[in-house]
Amino acid sequence: MNVRKFIAATARDALRKVRETLGPDAIILSNRGIPGGVEIMAVAARDMELIVSPRDSVRPPGGTDAPAGGAAPELTRGADRAATRPAEATLRKPASSWRPDAEVPLPAATARPLTDAPPGGEGTSAAAGAAVVPAAVMDEIRSLRRIVEQQLAGFAWGEVARSEPVKTEILRQMLGAGFSPRFARELLAELPRELDAAQALAWVRGRAERGMLTIDGESDIVDQGGIYALVGPTGVGKTTTAAKLAARCVLRHGARKLALVTTDGYRIGAHEQLRIYGRILGVPVLLARDAKDLRATLHDLRHTHMVLIDTMGMSQRDRMVGEQVAMFRDSDVRTLLLLAATGRGDTLDDVVRAYSGLGLAGCILTKVDEAASLAASLDVVIRHELRLYYVSNGQRVPEDLHLPNRPYLLHRAFKDLPESSPHRLAGVEPGLMMAGGGEGMLSVGGQRG
């Protein structure tokens, strides 16, 4: 194998030399930092046959070669192409777009009818053996690919850290706080280079605040009135939030201006908690079992200032979510999705997607007092362009329900982790996270080569 060494000031320059010398199909074997630059060891794609020998993969058990011009040589060439195909992505795609767990497609020759093989058991077994790349070879290729991906991500992170240290520090803080790589890339894409760390953090927070949709005191739904349904997964606080909104409405407009409706007729005693709140507030509580019943109930309450609908809690993956969507689809009900601030970002994304068919009017953020960070929840709210109506930070009714204060919420979201925190990112860990989050470090620091 003719292994070549390439040295350059940056990883991008070294890769360009590899491409010019060995071609776009070159395979990178290793890379490391050296004083003053980067060293990459690479080999041409044509030398791949020294790693995966065609003879080893197609030789029949008896040791005889397949007939010339038969199916076995053609299948061998297909197997070689399948074995080398993962390595081609080394230079054709950035490290962040690699998928180490992706299956490498088998060559089309595997579908060749057995009648094309020469007569006899040995020919058939040779063709079958040549049609599949050995599992050990594929595992080795995937392992090399993962190693190269991590190495290049580390180099890219180091290069960006040297050229734009402020941006990389803000990126580390955002990823450590719980923001998604995609949201971090979008916020940092236009960060001015001349800012110091404090100014850059203020700039990023300001941009996030401008993208955050909220209501103010003049848009409080308690004063505007209407029909609102509170939806969301189990345990997010729908019934308690309905009681808080009901208490606010009664305090401002009186009990006659409000009605409570529940659609949770499945669980034993599910609506009893809401009935208890209704008796305390002097507000009627009605049960709607299906869409027809709900339409009739809302027709009777059409002159009521405000109607709050408490719904059944369920997993966002439950099939009954679709039934709930259908129940509110043909009515004048505005839906508010409750999101727990303690949830993971990917789980909250799943919840928003499940209830998006309702045409959400906005959301309410609950359990703010229990969350160590608000980064993940605000990330989801901003990316999905959900209007934040209220923030709940306790169990007290109605004291623990507030209109959103954007500066306070973003201050908590961007709060950096202490040095002693086991969740604080260090070294090249932010770069490895960005490598698996889309376009990778190239879209955060510098420009593409």
Explain what you see:
- With 449 residues, this protein is of the alpha/beta class.
- It folds into three domains: 3-157, no CATH class; 164-210 and 418-443, no CATH class; 217-413, 3-Layer(aba) Sandwich (Rossmann fold), CATH 3.40.50.
- It is built from 17 helices and eleven strands.
- An eight-stranded mixed beta sheet has the order 6-5-7-4-8-9-10-11, with helices on both faces. Strands 1-3-2 form a three-stranded antiparallel beta sheet.
- Strand 9 (362-366), helix 15 (375-383) and strand 10 (388-392) form a beta-alpha-beta unit.
- Helix 3 (71-92) runs parallel beside helix 4 (121-130), helix 5 (135-163) crosses helix 6 (165-177) and helix 5 crosses helix 17 (429-435).
- The radius of gyration is 30 Å and the shape is elongated.
- The two termini are 29 Å apart.
- Mean pLDDT is 75; it is low at 54-131 and 438-449.
